[in-house]
UniProtKB/TrEMBL annotation:
It comes from Tepidibacter formicigenes DSM 15518. This is ThiF family protein.
């Protein structure tokens, strides 16, 4: 389980929040591959002691994905406010 989810669930339970709408992805993260067996070429990592493949993975996304997720959850909030229900 994701460490962030674990903390969030704990905090929500303490505040007695039983339901919460969320946006999430079922996609599995892709493991980074070192280019040509050597990570020193075009490496964006600051610590050069280990290769990028050995480091914690940086969550990546296409630039529009976070804003689209925000719009999706915003549409759900509006639907709740106006009382919209699907048939």
């Amino acid at each position: 389980m994701c460490p962030l989810v674990k903390v969030m669930r704990s905090k929500l339970r303490k505040r007695e929040i039983k339901k919460l709408k969320v946006v999430y992805s079922k996609e599995k993260p892709i493991t980074p591959k070192a280019v040509g067996g050597d990570c020193k070429t075009n490496c964006i990592c600051s610590n050069k002691d280990r290769t990028c493949v050995e480091r914690r993975q940086i969550p990546g996304s296409v630039s529009f994905v976070p804003s689209v997720a925000g719009l999706i959850i915003a549409s759900e909030v509006v639907k709740d406010i106006i009382g919209y229900t699907e048939n």
